[in-house]
Amino acid sequence: MLEARNGKLGNVVRTDVGSLAGDGIGLAPTPLIDGNDMLEVGITPGPVFARVLSSVYDAQLEGRVSGKPEALRLAAELAGGGSV
What we know:
Structural class: mainly alpha
Helix content: 40-55%
Number of helices: 4
Radius of gyration: 17 Å
Number of strands: 0
Order of helices and strands: HHHH
Strand content: under 5%
Shape: elongated
Largest sheet: none
Distance between the termini: 44 Å
Number of domains: 2
Oligomer: single chain
């Protein structure tokens, strides 16, 4: 149950959470890719590895990528490795 000191703000948050929960992506879906997936397609660990994973997950949450192949292509692009 959601409670807030400011009832109006509580209603806004409740509406936003409901909208996000029903958008087909969810509030915190399982990431489309992980570090093992990146390794399997030849992206080598380095200073940007975690940032690439985070950026791909952000793209997933924003609906810019919706499948593993798309996520891996974006990861390769962000890592500077071209296409996967």
